[in-house]
Amino acid sequence: MKTILLAVSLAALVLPARAADKARPAAKAAPITATFYITDVKCSSCASSIDESLRKLPTVTKIEDLSENTGFAVITFDPAVVSHHQVAQAVFAAAPVHGDPYLATLKFSIADYAKGDNAAKVDAVIAKNKSEVRIELKNKAKGEFLLSFEPLRVDGAKKGPQGWTLEQFRSAIQEPAPKGLGLTFSLASEK
Q: pLDDT per residue over 37-64, tens digit each?
């Protein structure tokens, strides 16, 4: 009888633990580091205001090179929890020290943009994202672009990253046909 009670007691401890293991979500994506180019950072107080706003986001673990001298910040965060759009929104939400809001942008390039009908295909992908981002062609021959963010519209029913996500955009450009265009996409980085 003691053996049966011991076995039942152990099962009562082990089975819920195994069920909890199965209920745990899959491992989070590894944190990424991205360079955001930020306007109107005129002094160390501006940089402090932006830093404070960014640190309110979950999973932002590092903010480097943000100063009035650089014009950019290198930010580390988990894209499975926070989108690039949310990072840009946090920059915009920072209290402006000199009256002008701070704007965060991304720079990227698409190899072979100017070849054949690639420009028309990429422009079609860009058009699908126009409600969340504005993408300006800076150099057609090199396929260089500047991406700025529209105000973030939060979907309260959605879990995870909100707004525009780089991964969806990158997939539409990089994935081989028929899912994507099969072109090389590179996000500009200062690291």
A: 999 999 999 999 999 999 999 999 999 9
Q: Tell me, what CATH number does 118's domain have?
A: 3.30.70.100
Contact call for residues 148 and 133 (beta carbons, < 8 A): yes
What domain count does the chain have? 1
| Domain containing residue 163 | 32-187
Residue 123 sits at φ, ψ, to 5 deg, of: -60, -35
Query: What are phi and psi for residue 163, nearest 5 degrees?
Result: 75, -155
Q: What is the pTM of this model?
A: 0.83
Per-residue pLDDT at 191: 80
Q: Cβ neighbours of residue 26 under 8 Å, at least 6 residues apart?
A: none
End-to-end CA gap in the chain = 66
